[in-house]
Amino acid sequence: MISVKMEKILDNLTSNYMPFTLLSNECTLEVVNVVRFIEMREGEIVHMMEDTGNSYYIITQGSAEVLQRGIYDDEMHKIAELGEGDAFGCEALISGNARSETVIMLEDSTL
After folding, report:
1. Which of 25, 84, 85, 102 has the maximum number of C-beta atoms within 10 A of its C-beta?
2. Pair 8, 59 in one domain
3. Strands 57-58 and 87-88, how do they pair?
4. Percent of the chain having pLDDT more than 90?
5. Which of 110, 104, 109, 88 is nearest to 43 (CA)?
6. What Cα–Cα distance (Å) separates residue 110 from each residue in 7, 22, 38, 89?
7. Claim to verify: residue 24 and residue 58 sit in the same structural domain
8. 52, 49, 53: which is closest to 66 by C-alpha?
9. What is the largest CA-CA distance in the chain?
10. Structural domain tally of the chain?
């Protein structure tokens, strides 16, 4: 039996987030059983470019910016801003490749 909180997470994942929309409820339930909430502070780095992709994140509260190194320079450039309900980390997690971006929290947040 799963908790009401986990049931809501399961429903949200299977309805709104790739790759969970493609999985059976049984497979998604296995994922939900390892879900943990992470409290992050403004300015805290979630992950850096070139880090190993071993987690998938959903912002449940707060916001973050996504940075990538420029093609023609070594400067980091903001390429996106993410907010509540946005997810990141799927590509590196599935491919096994290194992270292609750095993600930094813009405010105190929950992932």
Report:
1. 102
2. no
3. antiparallel
4. 39
5. 104
6. 18, 25, 6, 15
7. no
8. 49
9. 53
10. 2
Could you tell me the CATH number of the domain that includes residue 67?
2.60.120.10
103 and 65 within one domain: yes
Task: Give the integer Cα–Cα distance in Å for 30 and 70.
Answer: 38
Q: Which residue has the tokens 């992470």?
A: 38
Q: Are 43 and 104 in contact (CB under 8 A)?
A: yes
The SS3 call for residue 50 is: coil
Helix (H) or strand (E) segment spanning residue 70: none
pLDDT at residue 106, rounded to an integer? 98
Would you say 98 and 49 are in contact if contact means Cβ atoms under 8 Å apart? yes
pLDDT tens column, 46-61: 999 998 888 889 898 9
Asked if residue 106 and residue 72 are part of one domain, the reply reads: yes
Higher pLDDT: 20 or 89? It is 89
DSSP, collapsed to helix, strand or coil, labels residue 12 as helix
Domain that holds residue 77: 37-111
